[in-house]
Amino acid sequence: MWRGNRYPVFVASRLISQTGDMAALTALTVHIHESTGSPVAVGALFVVRMLPRILGLVAGAIGDRTELRGLLMVCDAACGAVFLVIALVDPAYPLLLALVFVAESAATITLPAARTMVGRTVPKEHLAEANGMLLAATAIGFASGSAVGGLLAGMGDYRWALVINAVSFAISILLLTLLPPAVPEPRTERSFFAETKAGLAVLRRGADVRPVVIGLVGVAFAAALDRPALIVLVREDLGASALWYGLALGGISLGVLLASLSHRGFEGRVLALFSAGILAQAAGHLVMGLAPLAAVVVLGALVAGVGNGLESVCGNTLLQRDAPKESLGVVLGVVLSGSFLADAAGSALGGVLVEWISAPGTFVVAALVMLACVRTR
Predict the structure, then answer these.
(1) Which of 106, 126, 212, 274 is such that its CA lies 20 to 30 A from the CA of 315?
(2) Is 40 exposed, middle or buried, given 0-12, 13-18 or 19+ CB atoms closer than 10 A?
(3) How confident is the model over 58-114, as pLDDT tens digits?
(4) CATH annotation of 7-184
């Protein structure tokens, strides 16, 4: 795929599907809030979206045994069909959640499969560049899709965003047909369970792989600690408007995009940049926690975003480079599940810490946890 100059086609397919997916999620969030008036109902949407992520290990193992281009096409077709059904039927809330769960189950297989496809088809010396391009596309799709979904939901019928999402999956499938197949590595006759267990053994014994996984999951936990703290810091401790909260979130996204677009000098320095990314996130969160002004919070968020981009690009590159290709999906699936659980635990604990020690103190704790993750390597 890389040598045939078709990798941009793969990135385009992910960009288009990510844009449609975020448009649908944003529109669904607005629709549920307006139709139910219940924050709990909105929260349930996000819970249903995240529940399948617990099975990231299984999803990754499926990718290890499967031709990945075809697997991505099947998952995209499933997601597109579900969102088209929602758009046509306009189901009641319980059925809507059930359909979203089905679509997110397919998306859970897609996430490690896409990253495994990069590791399977891109030469090691180009992995950092490939991951940077993919992360940039994800960041752009996240921002543009959210804007499109919010605009369409605000104009009237939320279902137009779901139709756009279904169309985006169809376009993604057409683009994937232009790529060569990504066949799995030669395998033994071991069972699915046995091969999954072998993939987990890589995490136990892999001196190169295990610290990267710990770093990725640990930083996800630390960053989630600050999620409930940020709004309290901006609105209550600094007395700033909600605009500054939005600017802080935007600063993180902008930092991620900047880091992902600077991928060309990463080769040969991936390990150092992975650690530098974690250090930058720790510094950014510390600046945010100690900020005397909301503008300084935005600056710290930008630094943290750059660090997050470096960590993501370089962490995935290290895993794709060092993990055995026949077990790469399992390793990436563990990162997916571990990051989800860490995010949930960090968000819950972060709220407690804000109550217990204050929002600025929570940022300091998060920075210290991130620094501990650097020492795991």
Answers:
(1) 106
(2) exposed
(3) 888 788 788 999 999 999 999 999 999 999 999 999 999 999 999 999 999 998 899
(4) 1.20.1250.20
